[in-house]
Amino acid sequence: MSEIIRLDRVSKIYDTGKIQVAALVDVDMKIGEGEYLSIMGPSGSGKSTLLNLLGCLDRPSKGTYRIDGIDVSSMDDDSLSEIRNRKLGFVFQSFNLIPQLTVLENIEVPLFYQGASEHESRAKATSLARRMGLGDRVHHRPMELSGGQQQRVAIARSLANDPVLILADEPTGNLDSATGEEMLRLLDELRDEGKTVIVVTHDTEVAQRSMRIVRMRDGRIESDTVVQRAGRS
Which of 34, 138, 148, 216 could be cross-linked to 45 through a Cys-Cys bond (beta carbons 3.0 to 4.6 Å apart)? Predict the structure, then answer.
């Protein structure tokens, strides 16, 4: 199994002007291609900071972070943005869809930043929309969709750039139990297709779907456990 993620003694320190707050402390982590990993921990444990670093939305104060063999630890904003556009797909609890755009246009956003042609973007977005069961909703806007449909648009968008890593932040948090189960099945399918998936969640049942559970506390990894039998439906 090739290595997609490697963190070596990564720390993140925020300077408030009066005190320094260590959000992450000497975190070491390796994640292989095709792994499905959950990150858990109480509020203030560092899991959101870790997700931001893994998603190249922030940089470590100390240590080294490599994604797909590329050291991104000290990249500037433009270089980090390029890595996000080429390597990463994001699924957020709040969906983060653009309300003025249709389903197709929302899915096309990552392809626009990659410089894909209009024809290529439209064809790929249409294919992803159909895969997510949204073929009859492609011209609707987010407010015309249910929560589950919006989350499916978000997953389709996360796949548009064929990422090496998918990061999901509480992906079932705003969904009812039935729709949440549907989303978990989609993540299972992505794992089965060989995608590397990292989920931040407070829900133990969600975490049990993964292959590993990393628990954070006080900015450190408290435990890193292999899930022997990931729950399936």
Answer: 216
Q: Mark out the alpha helices in 138-230 (DSSP H runs).
A: 147-159, 177-192, 204-207
Span 115-132, average pLDDT: 91
The vertex-199 CA angle with 198 and 201, nearest 5°, equals 155
User: Under CATH, which number does the domain 3-226 receive?
Assistant: 3.40.50.300
40 contact partners, CB below 8 Å, separation of at least 6: 47, 200, 201, 202, 204, 207, 213, 214, 215, 216
Distances (CA, A) of 213 to 27, 89, 92, 204, 207: 15, 20, 19, 9, 7
Query: What pLDDT is recorded for position 91?
Result: 86
Q: How far apart are CA 178 and CA 201, in angstroms?
A: 17
- DSSP 8-state assignment for residue 40: E
pLDDT over 90 (residue 38): yes
Domain ranges (residues) in the chain: 3-226
pLDDT value of position 231: 44
pLDDT at res. 229: 56
In one-letter notation, the amino acid at residue 162 is D
Given a cut of 50, is residue 222 above it in pLDDT? yes
